[in-house]
Hints:
This protein has helices at residues 7-16, 28-40, 51-57, 59-72, 88-96, 111-127, 160-170, 208-217, 233-241, 254-261, 272-288, 295-318; strands at residues 20-24, 45-50, 78-85, 101-104, 133-138, 143-145, 148-150, 174-177, 194-195, 201-202, 223-225, 265-270. By secondary structure, the protein is α/β, with parallel strands linked by helices.
Amino acid sequence: MALVNTKKMFEQAYKNGYAIGAFNVNNMEIVQGITEACKEENSPVILQVSKGARAYANHTYLVKLVEAAVKECPEIPIALHLDHGPDFETCKACIDGGFTSVMIDGSHLPFEENIALTKKVVEYAHAHNPYVTVEGELGTLAGIEDDVKVEAGNESYTKPEEVIEFVERTGVDSLAIAIGTSHGAYKFTPEQCTVNEDGILVPPPLRFDILEAVSAKLPGFPIVLHGSSSVPQDYVKMVNENGGKMPNAIGVPEAQLREAAALSVCKINIDSDLRLAMTGTVRKFFNEHPDKFDPREYLKPARANIKEIVRHKLINVLGCAGKADECK
């Protein structure tokens, strides 16, 4: 099947209490690892590209990689989404250039300016043939994701009292909210965490009260969580044991993400987990095989580990394994 937008995916996800995985991509191995897992688990998927990924890999290369994935995995719905579109021009270029969904991130702007920018993108995207879905954002997340940088202490939770007006005046198809997640692999500081009986740092819980308040005001409307990588500690350990320095890399507990997916969260963004798997695997490979130099030899196991992380997320966190057919 051809690339799809996110409309049917989100309708089914909301109705049936699961979330679609939105995985950031920037090279062939990541695209392959994600889509092979989704094909084997019969799962819909969103492949998303940031401004930084477009600068790194080039818009055309990325679109063609995703088109290749569609050809290799015709059984599953795949959406191509712009993550954190910074302005109208970038969103327009992606809409005109084959993307089926875009995010316009005006969360750093005053409320009225955010509405005006988001509405402009929505009007252009919805007039496009085929129809392109649009994600907006209210509230800001701390941390770093490509060119998105918000200092800790400057983040802001979404205000539930603003969401109805924002959605009605912009016409967005989904809304990203801030409930305590954070960009990057260092989502929480040790000072923010408690220590359990096993000596493991446990981050503060997400603000489910905000999620529930937003859901009550927007019944049936798809909500999105950014900054939702779990930062698997096995891969943090692998990085550190093989020459890396990633102290106190802490992610969002998967149980909380599954709880969010059972509510109104229809899209969960995941990027750091895949990057950790690739980096940790490559570091370990070179420590064990210092004489090797062929990229195929170290990227093959990296791709395999990305695939297994995605498979785990589909089944145990997102709940979207086996849901491809109902999302077509």
